[in-house]
């Protein structure tokens, strides 16, 4: 055990300086594109980047330090919290207005360690794969700070922070978007740790005491301050590719009583369709050697985890992707079985 801990410490020390925050390249990251695209980009705490954000908030440190930078941290230091919150409120009203006449809203959610330019390639492929009616369908490209490293040994280090960031992105970012939409068919398509973003938007996650304390002290963000998911009459379907989550992600903990229970989801959630792939090399790595140090990722890897969850959530379904070794977003969406998932869920494709 000591040998493993020393190895982890050494490994993390070597890669820490190679980790960067996943930030927008565009000065207007929360914008609308023709013909039917909503761009939504949030930081590590789920706050939406305002227009010309660099002018006010600057570039985050290249070290990827989780306490050094966030929109709310800087807004608090400059006394412009109301300005940041005002932008988010105005933006959500604009999104609600843009999708008001639509029937379906597709929301794409990437995983951790995924730079925005690579993510957008996957998003564009999916957008063109879907048979969309621009007058009746809207596509939301959702980006969050899953951190990023080019160091081949940096994945585990990134994972530690990205697990909590995914929950914050869901509770404060994606849930805000969902609450701006009403009476629509919403299809959430996620990859890897993006499944946690989705779950955290649909039902509140449990944060450790230390993370909650640090987020409040360093960023002026109360992890328990998120609004609940509004009952807006939506029909919500989730397609989770290579979901890097486990049973614990479906549970809520009572810290005082020391107990946990399965989360309750809104009646708006009609289906969660996942992939299971016990040859996914990335999920296998996390389930194996480092599994006792990292949050579980075994839902996308072990069918027995699905079999346990479906007892509590009968609206769950899975498709077996076993045989494909890659964990890459681009490989999952180009696998013919992905088209099969879409068709099974009543979603037509172009090819």
Automatic annotation (TrEMBL):
Which molecular function GO terms apply here?
hydrolase activity
Keyword tags:
Hydrolase, Signal
InterPro entries tied to this protein:
AB_hydrolase_fold, DUF900_hydrolase
Residue span of the signal peptide, if any? 1-22
Report the protein name in the record.
Alpha/beta hydrolase family protein DUF900
Which classification does the entry list for the species?
Answer: Bacteria, Pseudomonadati, Bacteroidota, Sphingobacteriia, Sphingobacteriales
């Amino acid at each position: 055990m000591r040998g493993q801990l020393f190895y982890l410490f050494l490994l993390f020390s070597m890669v820490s300086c190679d980790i960067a925050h996943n930030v927008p390249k565009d000065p207007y990251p929360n914008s609308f594109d023709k013909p039917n695209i909503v761009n939504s980009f949030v930081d590590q705490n789920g706050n939406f980047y305002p227009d010309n954000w660099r002018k006010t908030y600057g570039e985050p440190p290249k070290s990827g330090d989780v306490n050094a930078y966030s929109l709310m941290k800087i807004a608090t230091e400059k006394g412009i919290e109301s300005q940041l919150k005002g932008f988010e409120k105005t933006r959500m009203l604009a999104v609600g207005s843009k999708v008001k006449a639509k029937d379906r809203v597709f929301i794409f959610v990437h995983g951790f360690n995924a730079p925005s330019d690579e993510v957008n390639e996957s998003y564009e492929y999916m957008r063109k794969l879907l048979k969309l009616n621009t007058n009746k369908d809207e596509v939301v490209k959702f980006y969050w700070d899953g951190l990023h490293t080019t160091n081949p040994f940096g994945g585990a280090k990134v994972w530690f922070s990205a697990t909590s960031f995914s929950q914050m992105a869901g509770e404060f970012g994606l849930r805000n978007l969902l609450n701006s939409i009403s009476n629509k068919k919403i299809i959430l398509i996620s990859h890897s740790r993006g499944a946690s973003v989705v779950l955290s938007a649909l039902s509140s996650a449990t944060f450790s005491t230390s993370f909650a304390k640090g987020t409040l002290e360093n960023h002026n963000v109360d992890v328990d301050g998120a609004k609940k998911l509004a009952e807006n009459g939506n029909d919500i379907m989730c397609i989770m590719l290579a979901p890097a989550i486990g049973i614990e992600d479906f549970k809520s903990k009572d810290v005082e009583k020391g107990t946990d229970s399965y989360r309750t989801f809104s009646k708006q959630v009609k289906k969660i369709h996942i992939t299971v792939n016990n040859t996914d090399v990335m999920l296998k790595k996390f389930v194996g050697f480092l599994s006792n140090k990292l949050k579980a990722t075994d839902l996308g890897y072990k069918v027995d985890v699905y079999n346990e969850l479906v007892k509590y959530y009968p609206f769950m379904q899975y498709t077996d992707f076993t045989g494909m070794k890659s964990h890459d977003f681009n490989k999952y969406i180009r696998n013919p079985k992905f088209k099969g998932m879409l068709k099974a869920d009543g979603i037509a494709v172009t090819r």
